[in-house]
Amino acid sequence: MTMRLSLLVSLAFFALYGVIVVQSSSPEDWFDWVVSYGTISPFGVPKKVIMINNEFPGPLINSTTNNVVHVNVHNNLDEPFLFTWNGVQMRRNSWNDGVQGTNCPIMPGKNWTYYFQMKDQIGSFFYYPSVNFQRAAGGYGPIRINNRDVIPIPFPFPRDDFDILISDWFDKDYQEMRNDLDAGNTVLPSPDGVLINGKPSKSLHFNFEPGKTYRLRISNVGVKTTLSFRIQGHDLILIETEGSYTLKKNYTSLDIHPGQSYSVLVTADVPGTFSYNMIACTRFVSPVLCTLATVDYTGSTPALASSRPCSAHSPLSTTLARMGCLLIRSSSLMALGPGILMWDLDVGAARPNPQGSYHYGQINVTRTIVLQNEMAVIDNHTRYTVNGISFVYSNTPLKLADYFRVPNVFFTNLTKDRPDGQTLMISTPVIDALYRDFIQIVFQNKEDTVQTWHVDGYNFFVVGMGFGEWDESKRSEYNLKDAVWRTNTQVYPNGWTAVWISLDNMGMWSIRSMNEERRYLGQEVYIRVRGEDPMRLPDPRDEMPIPNDLPLCGRALPLWYHV
Ligand SMILES: *[C@@H]1O[C@H](CO)[C@@H](O)[C@H](O)[C@H]1NC(C)=O
Ligand SMILES: *[C@@H]1O[C@H](CO)[C@@H](O)[C@H](O)[C@H]1NC(C)=O
Ligand SMILES: *[C@@H]1O[C@H](CO)[C@@H](O)[C@H](O)[C@H]1NC(C)=O
Ligand SMILES: *[C@@H]1O[C@H](CO)[C@@H](O)[C@H](O)[C@H]1NC(C)=O
Ligand SMILES: *[C@@H]1O[C@H](CO)[C@@H](O)[C@H](O)[C@H]1NC(C)=O
Ligand SMILES: *[C@@H]1O[C@H](CO)[C@@H](O)[C@H](O)[C@H]1NC(C)=O
């Protein structure tokens, strides 16, 4: 019955479009993953975590530009589950984005196969569970999109690549944390520790061959805490972030905000001792917590690494310390131009043409949307808002509601392009936007903590960052030449970050805080990127037809059987 139905449906689509969009000329990567619970006790307290094929963290997706990836996910948890592919652009394919606004979760005991192409992308990313606050239980893993052989990389080929996933850690069970948030009267406490690749201090060793250079792909996969990363005695040469090559720059330490990924080159060229600490520490919270891994030079007897992990970082609990930190940050911000990082204009990334051949600075911005984050108390519950609206999910994914024209699931009339300072509500807003428009989003942070924002389906140019209130005059300070093109940006306390986006990817896309506590409590909004006529089905060259094995749920379910 199901077979016949799906056959009919695919025939219907075939008849409708007259074409099938063939991607099968590209190499394919297949993964078969069983998602289940396991227990780990990194700091002595056992905690239920999410494992993939009994691994924690989960396996590497090692793919290449334009490859087609299939991930068959078997949900052996006792609750619904979804993965999302943080930073993979999912071109024409929000159907497989794996967030609650696009997909029905995979139910316990069921499986579903994600299908997406690494279209025109390179870089370092990660995946993680996107629903039910499961991100606080792990379930994450690294994604690499390697260059095709014909595209050279703009640095000497490293001896090896290492994926390094750093995260905050909470001893508390994720379901209890979720209940606390649902109860609305608490915010999460400071983390209980920091993990590197799922391990606590001194349990992880990396071997470097003396004289050789390694590429480290570092992602902050944690729930909410900014982390600093460094390797004792070694420079980190930044080369890539979230799919674009940066101008190479030396760092002794990198601040990595939740959701962000960076590639750095590290050369094993320090004379003297042969063991060094790799150090990840919390930032902007008190007390500062750190975790160490060890880098051992091969062919030498490992000496004891010195253990002064965090002398460089004072607890930033007081306003003064925080100010001091920000002043340093802001002067370097001004010295280097907005966004701190700059694109390497001269190199090719996924395609042979140089990154700088796309002159984003000369394109006219057709629309500016200011998204202002705030904390609010609504009905005695702690909530977080965007332009006064705290996002809640309905049980029908927005993408399916849009496709099947189910009314009153989401509302395109709520989020205004400017915050009005009056609105305060809990609802399900969607920003309506036109395919191929070129827009600006300004993230305006009204709070005194660092925020991180992410847009699914897109990379954006980080053209400006500053303190205070954004207004049109800030444009004179923008970097319109070589701003970095990425998918997550930080927004400094009481500051703003302006990003420019070419809306060239049709679909329903999540714009969200990468602080999972804030996202869970409402700091999210969707953007529907559609053709001029919302009643017309998109051309499959602009958006893939609905996959015929897509799980359905909510109010999208009964309608299906009337197709
Ligand atoms: C990842 O894929 C690349 C390109 O196919 C290959 O050279 C490399 O060895 C792979 N790495 C791992 C860890 O599988
Ligand atoms: C579920 O997994 C089986 C094999 O384990 C596979 O044959 C089937 O296609 C999968 N179903 C979906 C909907 O992906
Ligand atoms: C980074 O610093 C090291 C010395 O500390 C120097 O040899 C190297 O050239 C620098 N690299 C860049 C890209 O600035
Ligand atoms: C941008 O707008 C200006 C003035 O409205 C116009 O002169 C210019 O041609 C436009 N540029 C592009 C690339 O459309
Ligand atoms: C909110 O909390 C206060 C104090 O705890 C209580 O007096 C009040 O009745 C609550 N209001 C609602 C709407 O629950
Ligand atoms: C938005 O539209 C809905 C109907 O789709 C309507 O009920 C609601 O009142 C509108 N809200 C505003 C603020 O205009």
From TrEMBL:
Domain Plastocyanin-like: 35-148, 164-283, 396-530
Keywords in alphabetical order: Signal
Signal sequence annotation: 1-24
One Gene Ontology MF term: oxidoreductase activity
The organism's place on the tree of life at top rank: Eukaryota
InterPro entries: Cu-oxidase-like_N (IPR011707), Cu-oxidase_2nd (IPR001117), Cu-oxidase_C (IPR011706), Cu-oxidase_fam (IPR045087), Cupredoxin (IPR008972)
Gene3D superfamilies in the record: Cupredoxins - blue copper proteins
The family this protein is said to belong to: Belongs to the multicopper oxidase family.
Stored PANTHER family: MULTI-COPPER OXIDASE, MULTI-COPPER OXIDASE TYPE I FAMILY PROTEIN
Name recorded for this polypeptide: Plastocyanin-like domain-containing protein
Source organism of the structure: Asparagus officinalis
Organism taxonomic ancestry: Eukaryota, Viridiplantae, Streptophyta, Embryophyta, Tracheophyta
